[in-house]
């Protein structure tokens, strides 16, 4: 039997960082995670098949919820706006009001918030569960880059799909508004859409697209960060899913406020 | 129980570990670990829970980084090589997880195909299918090919986990608690499988376990992790022929003295 000599390297002493230190560590970790996403997503090899699968999961599976919410929002917004406009005899402005409101704010925000709840939580829980059950480690040891396969594809899919869903929400919302308008007035569908679209500018379209891309990226990256770095145990999975929703929703509101201010500069 | 041949210590060292340290906060897990794995041997690593056995093999495969010390696997110093080189090294080192870590959204076939289609891109669909079926047959579970992991028993999951690592035909196998949580009959089947893998695929293996029957049956050599170091290494009999109070309870508990 071999009796080994012991080494004399001193045992490291752990010093716990302060709250401020922890905040900077977290910020650094988030920064590194985002930087790694850009590196992994745009450098080969590409995970095209998994990206398409994720686009299907995010887009198709959210479509029904988003259709319902968008349609109801269109109906309710039109109904609630009518009394105020009729006081000034301006109910003919309803289509353009609904069109602008939906495209500029309601559609991106609604889609972002619903996707944060449905998609963000699902990504957080799925990756969290994979982390806890060592499936991510299993991918790593089988010489597959799990960050590229799991994170890059999900973030890209959310960034691509949320803008598409946003315009879908706007369209369904307009249909809801049309239903409400046609119940009270004799406006034709063609006149309704013509009236609502003529007030929409290229800037509205661009601003909405940029916002939706930003919301999609936020939902994807927050969900993946929380899930991928979740702590051990089922509690960690629940926490990852919950944090993914709460943080994404909070950031979406912040981004909405900033983008309204920013694009407002071009509307003078 | 069959007698395992002794390790040929003149054989090439496929893993060399020197002065390895690893801590988690103030918990110092590994405190100067030195260990060699010789080509073709099954080395069993024993130790109490929380002594760092799993940490050790996770450092070997590059899932954790050491605080100090050197880990050389097939001539590569693990924490000095690039990520790309590490991925290439991992193709030669199979890792069987304690809880199998099967991808629960994929069928057994897809679990086995996953590492293969990513790392052996020149293989045709037919060749992939053949390899998957052959490997499943080698672990005796060809009939489960279209089942989901949730439909399998604990022992079957372990076997599929081993099959998934074997499909890349690694030179080294790392088994993390292969018999944990299994009934005695399934444990014997897993022990037999580990020996079959050694013979059929000519692997060199490290087997982490608490199970002394497993240690005795599969190990050419046994190393015992005590207080963060390998203080006792040798044959099963050499390691347990002692009055060391840190070692005796293992034997007494497993063999009901």
Automatic annotation (TrEMBL), chain A:
It holds the Pfam family MlaE. GO terms for molecular function: phospholipid transporter activity. The chain crosses the membrane at residues 58-77, 97-117, 155-181, 202-228, 240-266. InterPro entries: Permease_MalE. Keywords: Membrane, Transmembrane, Transmembrane helix. One of its GO terms (cellular component) is ATP-binding cassette (ABC) transporter complex. It comes from the Bacteria. This is Phospholipid/cholesterol/gamma-HCH transport system permease protein.
From TrEMBL, chain B:
SUPFAM superfamilies: P-loop containing nucleoside triphosphate hydrolases. Keywords: ATP-binding, Nucleotide-binding, Transport. Residues 15-252 form the ABC transporter domain. The keyword NADP does not apply. One of its GO terms (molecular function) is ATP binding. It holds the Pfam family ABC_tran. PANTHER family: PROTEIN TRIGALACTOSYLDIACYLGLYCEROL 3, CHLOROPLASTIC. This is Phospholipid/cholesterol/gamma-HCH transport system ATP-binding protein.
């Amino acid at each position: 039997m071999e009796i080994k000599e012991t080494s004399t390297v001193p045992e490291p002493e752990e010093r716990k960082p302060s709250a401020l230190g922890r905040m900077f560590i977290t910020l650094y970790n988030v920064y590194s995670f985002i930087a790694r996403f850009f590196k992994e997503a745009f450098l080969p090899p590409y995970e095209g098949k998994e990206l398409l699968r994720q686009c299907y999961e995010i887009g198709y599976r959210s479509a029904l919820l988003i259709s319902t919410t968008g349609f109801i929002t269109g109906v309710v917004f039109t109904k609630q706006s009518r009394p105020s406009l009729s006081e000034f005899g301006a109910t003919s402005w309803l289509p353009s009001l609904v069109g602008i409101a939906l495209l500029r704010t309601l559609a991106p925000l609604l889609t972002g918030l619903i996707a944060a709840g449905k998609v963000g939580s699902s990504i957080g829980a799925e990756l969290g569960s994979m982390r806890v059950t060592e499936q991510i480690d299993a991918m790593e040891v089988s010489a597959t880059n799990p960050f590229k396969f799991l994170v890059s594809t999900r973030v890209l899919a959310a960034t691509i799909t949320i803008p598409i869903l946003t315009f879908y929400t706007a369209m369904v919302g307009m249909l809801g508004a049309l239903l409400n308008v046609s119940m009270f007035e004799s406006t034709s569908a063609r006149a309704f859409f013509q009236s609502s679209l003529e007030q929409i500018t290229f800037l509205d379209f661009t601003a909405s697209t940029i916002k939706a891309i930003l919301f999609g990226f936020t939902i994807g990256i927050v969900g993946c960060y929380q899930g991928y770095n979740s702590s051990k145990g089922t509690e960690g999975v629940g926490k990852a899913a919950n944090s993914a929703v709460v943080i994404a929703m909070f950031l979406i509101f912040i981004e909405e406020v900033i983008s309204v201010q920013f694009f407002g500069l071009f509307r003078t | 129980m069959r007698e395992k041949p002794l390790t040929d210590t003149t054989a090439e060292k496929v893993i060399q570990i020197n002065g390895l340290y690893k801590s988690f906060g103030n918990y110092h897990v590994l405190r100067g670990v030195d260990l060699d794995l010789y080509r073709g041997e099954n080395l069993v690593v024993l130790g109490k829970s929380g002594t760092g056995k799993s940490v050790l093999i996770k450092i070997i495969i590059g899932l954790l980084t050491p605080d100090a010390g050197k880990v050389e696997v097939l001539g590569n110093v693990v924490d000095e090589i690039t990520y790309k080189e590490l991925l290439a090294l991992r193709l030669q080192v199979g890792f069987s997880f304690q809880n199998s870590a099967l991808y629960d959204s994929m069928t057994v076939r897809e679990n086995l195909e996953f590492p293969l289609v990513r790392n052996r891109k020149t293989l045709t669909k037919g060749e992939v299918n053949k390899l998957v079926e052959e490997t499943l047959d080698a672990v005796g579970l060809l009939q489960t090919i279209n089942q989901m992991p949730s439909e399998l028993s604990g022992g079957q999951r372990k076997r599929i986990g081993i099959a998934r690592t074997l499909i890349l035909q690694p030179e080294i196998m790392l088994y993390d608690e292969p018999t944990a949580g299994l009934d005695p009959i399934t444990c014997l089947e897993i022990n037999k499988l580990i020996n079959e893998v050694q013979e059929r695929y000519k692997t060199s293996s490290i087997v982490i376990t608490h199970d002394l029957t497993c240690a005795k049956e599969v190990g050419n050599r046994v190393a015992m992790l005590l207080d963060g170091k390998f203080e006792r290494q040798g044959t099963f009999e050499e390691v347990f022929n002692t009055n060391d109070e840190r070692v005796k309870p293992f034997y007494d508990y497993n063999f009901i003295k």
